[in-house]
Amino acid sequence: MDMVDKFVPKELSWLSFNGRVLQEAADPSVPLIERVRFLGIYSSNLDEFFKVRVAELKRQVIINNAQGENEAAVNLLRQVQNEANKYQRTLNSIYSDLLEELSKHNILMRDQDSITQEQKDWVSSYFKHHVLKHINPVIIDAETDLVSFLKDEFTYLLVKLSNSSSEYHALIEIPTDKIPRFIRMPSEDNSVVFMFLDDVIRVGMEMIFRGLYEYDSIEAYSIKMNRDAEYDLLGNIDRSVLENMSEALKQRLNAMPVRFSYDAAMPEDMVRFMAGELKMSAIDSMMPGNRYHNFKDFLAFPSIGSDEMENPSLSEIKSVQFETAITPFDAIAKKDVLLYYPYYSFDYFTEFLRYASYDPKVSSIKINIYRVASNSRVINSLMHAANNGKSVTVVVELKARFDEANNVKWASFLTQAGVKVLFGLPTLKIHSKLCLVTRHEGDKITRYAHIGTGNFNEKTAKIYTDFALFTANEKITSEVNDVFRFIEYPYTRPVFNNLLVSPLNAREKITSMIDREIEFAKQGKEAAINFKVNALVDIDLIEKLYEASQAGVKIRGIVRGMCSIKAGVPGLSDNIYITSIVDRFLEHPRVMLFNNGGFEELYISSADWMRRNLDLRIEVGTRILDPDLKERIKSILLLQQKDNRKARIVDADQVNNYVQAGPNEKQIRSQIEIHDYLLRVENEMAIDV
């Protein structure tokens, strides 16, 4: 079996993942408003996919073409474009169905051709007084450089003004950064009526151009463009790291287009016109679509209608360990604490940091920052800690994709506050989720560590599932300290026994643990690997898992996104079974459980099973030493493995079939079952306190 037959291309696998997101928009068991918002998630995901992965594939095509080796990359690019177009047609169909469902609940989406005269008068007035001041058309002529002008991800109306002797083209930006995309109109009955901002502009089109051009007709069609998100970070040695990053980000603003999306109803001559203006090549993605673009705006679709049209809120689970302790440090010193977001509040971490910022016993705080909230309490506490005389070291990852500008800003604020800011290593992105607080307790020094699978971000902690371990166990905290020392002094080579640290020992350790299971299987003993990651595309690890499967190791994986392994193929991967869960929360933790002859080893980690995470980033995973917490994570993993409501089978065909419950089998929706399980755990702990 050759390489092509053994692996699913990661780009096609990613599209299959986003297809699972689209399934949620089509699922009638999902509350209606949530289904609409899943269209937004799908669209937002797809934008990033084209800007990053398709752009990377396009660059590979260009490189291969220069070397005379173009066929494989071009074929893959064509497959990706065809699949994306297929999903676009599916989205259009789902959107049409959702409009019909919304109308049954008296929620109506109207365009300029389906409103009453009274409503049209209201829209015209709204446009004149609220929208027109934000409209600045660009008249396209021979001097116009649309490649430089168009903003990435913004929706535009391409307008053609024509009469019998001449025609003009203009572009109008839909100003969704200033006005909501969905404009609620007055209604004479009890219905809720919305109009897209796009159509509000169509209604007011005459006000924009009257008196300027003579025309007999106006046509307006929606378009959108995505740019390559890559940039060059070579920089200038005479500039600071921050200055080089700021300069590099400007490149993204003028990067070449990789996708041009347009209303499928747009006449062919206008499509050709725009393709020429944007210098679209034969390998670029031209995607006919809906009348409207930027479905990502549906992420903010208003909360309207009855309560059952949205997900019911889940009760927030209280951590008995933190709630009953005088200080966060007392709780952690007594016993390791495990949180699982979003079931637990992220406030426990921000309180841990806030308390450390003024605790007289705390001497230092070290933390990695990758993505933080726009109004971050984490950053605020770090600056206060510096003001209170603590030694504060913050490792800011400036290359966190699409958060670079925010991180440049935070780095400047922290530096001005007296915080020691490090930017890590030029060749290694720092993706670990570490925080280390050093405290003087009597005549000894105690370290308190946080090791997590998700970012220190109050916003995403409400919608991503992630593990967070708080520990004062010296076996772990001393190694966390060594990670920070390595980041600051990369010539050091610390030894890790309880941490998996990329790129130092993670790949080697994971491979050796798989080899260990292979040996147990060859000896006729029980051998099993259970894991949960966001992506599994590392070829070497997949080959090792194939080897383990063929030796008889039972392998059970949960992979949210890209998965290049072909599970369940006779003779190759008979003992591998993979599922993927897409539900109301974004599955984000990484967990590894190795049977180890009955002496199980369990790790949580920030790293996916991708080459970049194992070899090209600083990532940290930790062994779970506390037996109670190990059992808790295993129980959560087991509930996810039993999911038969929101789990899909990820096999060689990547068709996203749902896991089906047996005739007498209990229906299990793991994200809800986990909430109930953790609530029981905390209630039992409360009884024992």
Low-confidence runs (pLDDT<50, min 5 residues)?
231-254
Calculate the mean pLDDT score and round it: 91
- Calculate the terminal CA-CA distance, rounded to whole Å: 59 Å
Helical run tally: 21
DSSP helix fraction? 25-40%
Classify the secondary structure makeup into a structural class.
alpha/beta
Number of strands: 26
Strand % is 15-25%
What is the molecular shape? globular
Largest sheet: 9 strands, mixed
Can you walk through the features of this model?
- The chain is globular, with a radius of gyration of 27 Å.
- Helices cover 40% and strands 21% of the residues.
- Helix 2 runs antiparallel to helix 3.
- The chain is of the alpha/beta class and 689 residues long.
What topology does this entry show?
Blueprint: H1 3-6, H2 10-26, H3 32-66, H4 71-104, E1 107-110, H5 117-131, E2 138-140, H6 146-149, E3 155-162, E4 167-173, E5 182-185, E6 192-196, H7 197-203, H8 205-209, E7 217-227, H9 241-253, E8 257-263, H10 268-277, E9 285-289, H11 320-323, H12 328-334, E10 337-341, H13 347-358, E11 362-369, H14 377-387, E12 391-396, H15 404-416, E13 420-422, E14 429-430, E15 434-441, E16 444-452, E17 464-471, H16 474-488, E18 499-502, H17 506-522, E19 528-533, H18 539-551, E20 554-559, E21 576-581, E22 586-587, E23 590-594, E24 601-605, H19 611-615, E25 617-623, H20 627-641, E26 647-649, H21 670-688
